[in-house]
């Protein structure tokens, strides 16, 4: 048996070749091709993924524009999200559909980041600006929901835990804190950007929370986003593949298969060395201190390579110190 990690689910399948008659990633075989609702892949295109025994899952995912990482020896395969052709619209999940008509600050954080101390400040902004049609939605990138729980106690804004990394994949988030502004129509008002709500770690990140929060208030009250960027920054193919290796590594770590997980973590680091949401985010599952020597080793590695920890540099950044 193989565990399939896709669409926020874990499903058991018999193998990487799916027998005819069974759905594949929600698609069903029809006389004229493979269909899901009104969408269909013509038979002549689907033939590239079909074998005598059934449908090659990884090849079929490729036809859908979805990357995959398979580790048949460990019994797991992860399939990524489709490439999003419309980058100016916020991908929907959890509470977002119910907030249409409001301006939203989508705040990515984690218990393994000092930005966890910003949550009370985000809660204050949520309450302060709620009368202007504004809401904070916080997304924890903790792979273990229990690690996020203590920091969410007493908060009233919508909050979710992205334990499988799917929301980070949808929004191409490579580190925290990252914030996305979403307008009342569900479109991107400001793309994924490093943003703080307090100056707790200003000596390390060189970011001015005063500038950032003032810009947020201007947007909520006056409608001025302070930028012409209105699309999410698209991930590269390597970044998408690195996240899938991270998803497989997380599954293996939860199963106690540390050595196998290490191979996938190494692959993720080679593909996207700057993706701390994977490299640092999985440290707690591996029993590694995310505030310890390994994290600072990675920081030094990235700085030596000229890769900024906080990407991209926002317009409210100041020189550290």
From TrEMBL:
Q: Which InterPro entries match?
A: AhpC/TSA, Thioredoxin-like_sf, Thioredoxin_domain, Thioredoxin_ResA/DsbE_sf
Gene Ontology MF term list: antioxidant activity; oxidoreductase activity
Q: Which organism is it from?
A: Planomonospora parontospora
Do you know which Pfam families this protein is assigned to?
Answer: AhpC-TSA
* Domain Thioredoxin: start-end pairs: 84-218
Q: What is this protein called?
A: Thioredoxin domain-containing protein
Q: Which Gene3D superfamilies match?
A: Glutaredoxin
């Amino acid at each position: 048996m193989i565990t399939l990690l896709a669409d926020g689910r874990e499903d058991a399948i018999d193998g990487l070749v799916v027998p005819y008659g069974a759905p594949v990633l929600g698609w069903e075989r029809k006389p004229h091709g493979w269909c899901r609702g009104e969408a269909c892949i013509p038979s002549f295109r689907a033939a590239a993924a079909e074998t005598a025994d059934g449908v090659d899952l990884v090849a079929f995912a490729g036809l859908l524009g979805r990357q995959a990482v398979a580790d048949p020896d460990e019994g797991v395969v992860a399939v990524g999200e489709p490439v999003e052709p419309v980058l100016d619209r916020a991908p929907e999940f959890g509470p977002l559909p119910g907030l249409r008509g409001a301006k939203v600050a989508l705040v990515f954080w984690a218990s393994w980041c000092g930005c966890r101390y910003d949550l009370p400040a985000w809660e204050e902004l949520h309450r302060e600006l709620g009368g202007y049609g504004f809401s904070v939605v916080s997304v924890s990138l903790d792979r273990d929901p229990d690690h996020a729980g203590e920091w969410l106690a007493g908060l009233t804004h919508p909050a979710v835990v992205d334990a499988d990394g799917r929301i980070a994949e949808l929004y191409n988030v490579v580190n925290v804190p990252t914030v996305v502004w979403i307008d009342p129509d569900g479109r991107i008002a400001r793309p994924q950007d490093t943003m703080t709500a307090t100056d707790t770690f200003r000596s390390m990140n060189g970011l001015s929370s005063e500038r950032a929060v003032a810009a947020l208030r201007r947007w909520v009250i006056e409608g001025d986003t302070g930028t012409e960027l209105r699309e999410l920054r698209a991930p590269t193919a390597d970044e998408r593949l690195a996240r899938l290796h991270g998803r497989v590594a997380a599954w293996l770590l939860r199963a106690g298969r540390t050595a196998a997980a290490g191979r996938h973590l190494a692959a993720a680091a080679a593909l996207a060395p700057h993706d701390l949401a994977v490299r640092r985010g999985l440290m707690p599952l591996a029993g590694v201190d995310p505030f310890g020597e390994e994290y600072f080793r990675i920081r030094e590695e990235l700085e030596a390579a000229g890769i900024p920890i906080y990407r991209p540099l926002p317009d409210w950044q100041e020189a550290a110190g």
